[in-house]
Hints:
The chain has 247 residues and is of the alpha+beta class. The protein has 9 helices and 10 strands. A hairpin with a 4-residue loop joins β7 and β8.
Amino acid sequence: MPPPTLEERRVFYRSFDARNAFSWARTISATPVFAINPGWYTRIATDRMLSLVRQGYRMVYLRNVRNPKALRAKLLKYLPEGVYYWRNVVSDPEYCYGCPLKFFRRRNLCERCPNYLGQELMFDVDPERVTGKRRDEVGPEEFPAVKDAVIRLYDALAEEFSRLRIVFSGRGFHIHVRDEDTFLYTIEERVELARRYASYGVDVPVTAGGVSLARLPYTLNGISGLVVLPVSRKKLEEFDPYHSSSS
């Protein structure tokens, strides 16, 4: 499936579920922070975004996105390759926009900042970690194995946590943990959890907190062309995003 064109992205964001997308991020923070991939992987981008890609920008943080209408307007303006929300919870997001530490991909250095209040715990399972194949070798035929890994991971996590949400990322899956005490987990606790569940295909840096962005549900994965969607555990076994009846 080829990546969507700019026009296909435009058509999608004209009618996408901005209200639920914004509400999802707002369950993490009353003042959610959003970011976009301008076109790093596909090089499909507006002239303005392509200029940023050539300068080395993989992510661009958005400002003044205070409601669903503003979110839709920004996405229609930039037509991004991917849309994300920041899993960190802080006292004042404005303080963070110019800070380079939020891009650090191995440790959550934000934990040292007095502005930091916590981070949503998340487990990321992608096809290449489950199958052992390279990213460019993975196709729809690997999806059943990835889904099986996520089902097993969810059921294992459910013995430890009570508020779990599953999201299809457009390629793999994310499992978000919403138990309140987990927002205050230390780096050491997150690393221990990530290593404990690594055999399911979990991306350790994501759970450990160094990668603090997550794909925003209801937006478009501009690489696969599939919609990022929450999926209940009950419906997961029958979920097949490669057929329109289940997307």
